[in-house]
Design goal:
This protein is an alpha/beta fold. The protein folds into 2 domains: 113 residues, Aspartate Aminotransferase, domain 1 (Alpha-Beta Complex), CATH 3.90.1150; 242 residues, Aspartate Aminotransferase, domain 2, CATH 3.40.640.10. The chain contains 12 helices and 15 strands. The strands form 4 sheets. It has a 7-stranded mixed beta sheet with strand order 2-10-9-8-5-3-4, with helices on both faces. A 4-stranded antiparallel beta sheet has the order 11-12-15-14, with helices on one face. A hairpin with an 8-residue loop joins strand 14 and strand 15. Helix 2 crosses helix 9, helix 5 packs parallel to helix 6 and helix 11 packs across helix 12. The longest helix is centred in the C-terminal third of the chain and has 24 residues. The chain is globular, with a radius of gyration of 21 Å.
């Protein structure tokens, strides 16, 4: 693979130079005052990024580890939960709930659409046994953004926890954990946080913290009570990925220096630009409520989306993501979050336009079947 490939996938995304510099530095030991100072800084800065006063725990693992932690720490076998399924990662919450013996109800909406918060209100009234609602801020498989704020208003006085996967949306789409009455929020390092894969972050508000003490599901490595106790001492319960945590401290400094409001604005404007350009090329936009993290779009008619992505990667050095599930080969997904710039997007969009023209000319040149 070309090491100079332009990475425009919705995770991982390009790393800022200061992050790459830190990742190349020598290691030091994690059970030291030096590392405890870094962890304390990361933990404090994460609270600012999540917009919360609640503690945020740093786990070694992908975003799915954060999703699993957000399930096992707040439930007991047989609990009824509601999953707002808007795509592939909504499905993952259902799969996790079933794996741990919960009883998931599912509000499944067509891919490309956001969930209607009034449907949550109806389910809440119909089933007073519900313990939690699971949803995505941004559904990465479709490029939609859900109205977390409205769902939070529905649930705020109910005793039902609101658990939000903000893995793709955090630091791209607006997210206000405390203001929106979110009880548990999850993030991953490889999206708009501009880090390599390998870290998950779980923020736990007071109402969820109380539930955590009485939850009955088995857990060990993902037991957030261990992280809670360790963090009070400035430590992690298990060996952390030291370089990633140090890089997280630097990237959070960059984010907070730029200010979240500016980042939300920039990501939104880049998304508007990408959607305009793709529309001009004949792509049909997929998401009815588009996220500021990425854009998903149907490839033009008669174009093989999988071949388009392969040609872009192998011949142009531009890596995009394709569709998932039933939309494999029919969609492209292009990120505009984090460190991705307008110049990166122009380069990627120019490559898409060139490749479409080459594929069109190739089809014209194919001999007709007799």
């Amino acid at each position: 693979m070309n090491p100079d490939t332009l990475l425009l996938t919705p995770g991982p995304i390009p790393l800022p130079e200061p992050v790459r510099d830190i990742l190349s530095e020598p290691l030091f030991h994690h059970r030291t005052p030096q590392f405890r100072a870094v962890l304390a800084s990361v933990s404090a800065r994460l609270k600012q990024v999540f917009r919360t006063e609640a503690p945020v725990y740093t786990l070694a693992g992908s975003g799915t580890a954060g999703m699993e932690a957000a399930l096992v720490n707040f439930h007991s076998t047989g609990d009824a939960v509601l999953v707002l399924d808007t795509g592939k990662f909504g499905e993952r919450f259902t799969e996790l709930a079933e794996a741990y013996g919960l009883k998931p109800e599912v509000i499944k909406v067509p891919w490309g659409q956001a969930v209607d918060p009034e449907l949550v209100r109806e389910r809440l009234l119909a089933n007073p046994q519900l313990k939690s609602v699971f949803m995505q801020l941004c559904e990465t498989s479709t490029g939609i953004v859900n109205d977390v704020e409205a769902v939070g208003r529905v649930l705020k006085d109910s005793g039902v926890l609101l658990i939000v996967d903000a893995i793709a949306g955090l630091c791209a789409d607006r997210f206000e954990m405390d203001l929106w009455h979110v009880d548990v929020a999850i993030a991953g390092s490889q999206k708009a946080l501009m880090l390599p894969p390998g870290l998950a972050f779980v923020a736990v508000a007071p109402r969820a913290s109380l539930r955590m003490q009485e939850a009955g599901l088995p857990r060990y490595y993902l037991d957030l009570r261990r992280y809670e106790a360790a963090l009070k001492k400035g430590d992690t319960p298990f060996t952390p990925p030291i370089s990633l945590v140090r890089a997280a401290d630097k990237v959070l400094e960059l984010i907070l220096t730029e200010r979240l409001e500016n980042i939300w604005w920039r990501s939104r404007r880049l998304g508007e630009y990408v959607r305009l350009r793709l529309n001009e090329m004949g792509f049909k936009l997929f998401a009815q409520a588009p996220s500021s993290a990425l854009t998903a779009a149907f490839v033009p008619e008669a174009v093989d989306g999988s071949r388009l992505i392969t040609c872009l990667r192998e011949e142009k050095g531009v890596t995009l993501a394709g569709g998932q599930g039933a939309f494999k080969g029919r969609l492209i997904r292009l990120a505009h979050m984090g460190s991705i710039t307008i110049h990166d997007l122009d380069e990627g969009l120019r490559a898409i336009e060139e490749t479409l023209e080459e594929m069109k000319n190739s089809r014209k040149a194919e001999p007709a079947l007799s």
